[in-house]
Each structure stands twice: as structure tokens, then as C-alpha cells.
Amino acid sequence: MKSEISTRHFAQLLSATPRGARLARLLAVQQLDEWGWPPTCTVSESAALVVAELAANAVAHGRVKGRGFRLTLTVEASGTLRIEVAGSRGDRLALARRTASPTDETGRGLLLVDVLTARWGSDPWPPSGKVVWAEIGLPHPVLAASASAAQPSTGAVPAPAPAPAPAPEAEAEAEAEAAS
Questions:
Q1: 147 in Cβ contact with 9 (< 8 Å)
Q2: DSSP code for 121
Q3: Which residue has the higher pLDDT, 74 or 1?
Q4: Is residue 49 classed as helix, strand or coil in its secondary structure?
């Protein structure tokens, strides 16, 4: 007997560059759309901001030359979206309680993550990196996902369904009109 799959999972390795951080945000929005949360819904908008911040931090503060970062999205049966960004440098802790002055142009990103998520934190990612994760509560619990939804997306677009064949009497009428 097959057991039900109760999570949806997406993981992608990206370059530790500003372009890689932007791509992480775009991929997260696309994947959530495939899972049923369109780009304009609160879940997708919040996740996009959280992914953008965590990916930008991985690029700016966790970058090791020649190594990328990993974006992981997991929808758990408990009704939680878990976002993880794993970087190669684990010697700096993520701190959200820094006070930025009104004239500072940086320093508020993790405060934004703190507001948009139910909880967040970081864990070591052996051998020398760390994972910064955040969890967003979903509007309704996801009880079980289909087996195809649990697989990472390939980005393929399904082929359109063929048009239905006309009824025989409609074909005869069309031929009669064409002949007259």
C-alpha cells in the first residue's frame, strides 16, 4: 500500500550573485504559483519578500568565492511554508534586533522577515555554512499533496488539450453551407 505524501518540496542551487538572489525570488513565486498560491496572494507576496531578503543576505554576507547558495521551499502538512537559504559561510549569525537610524539605507531586512513570518532562525550547515530559515503560516492546512506536486518543478508547461471533434451533424451542416 502506498503512503500519502504530506509535503511539497522544491530545492535549487543558485549562484551567490545579485542575479542569483533575484532568480531565487522569481523561482519561489513561480513554485508557489504551481502549488496553488498565485503571485498576488498574501502567502506568495510575503514569501517573495522573505526569499529576497534571505538570498540577498546570503550573497552579501555569506558568500564564499566559487560557491553558491541553496534555496529550499517546503509546504508541510501542518500548514506551514518553510523557506531555507543555505550559504557557504557560517561564521556570522543572523541578527534581527539591530536598530537602524532613519537615515540608514540598510539594516532592516531581518526585521521585515521577523514581521512577515511566524518564526525564523538559523542552524549550522556542515561543514562550514549555515541555513537561515523562516516559516510562514498558511491560510489553511495542506492535508496531503499529490505525488506529482511533491516533485521539484521542471518548469515544463503542459501541452494544451486538443479541441473537441465537432458532432457529425454539425460537420454535415458546415459542408452543406460551403457547397451552396
A1: no
A2: E
A3: 74
A4: helix
Burial of 141 (0-12, 13-18, 19+ CB in 10 A): exposed
Highest average pLDDT, of 41-45, 166-170, 175-179, comes from 41-45
Domains in the chain (CATH in brackets) are 8-155 (3.30.565.10)
Q: In what order do the strands lie in the sheet with 69-76?
A: 8-14, 69-76, 80-87, 129-137, 119-125
Cα–Cα distance measured from residue 108 to residue 124, given in angstroms and rounded to the nearest whole number = 23
pTM metric for this prediction: 0.69
pLDDT digits (tens, 9 = 90+) for 19-53: 999 999 999 999 999 999 999 999 999 999 999 99
- Could you tell me the three cell numbers for 118? 511566524
Contacts of the segment 144-147: beta carbons below 8 A, 24+ positions apart: 144/4, 144/5, 144/6, 144/77, 145/5, 145/6, 145/7, 145/8, 145/75, 146/5, 147/5
| DSSP label of 65 | T
| ∠ CA 76-124-126, rounded to 5° | 105
- Residue 13 phi/psi, 5° resolution? -90, 130
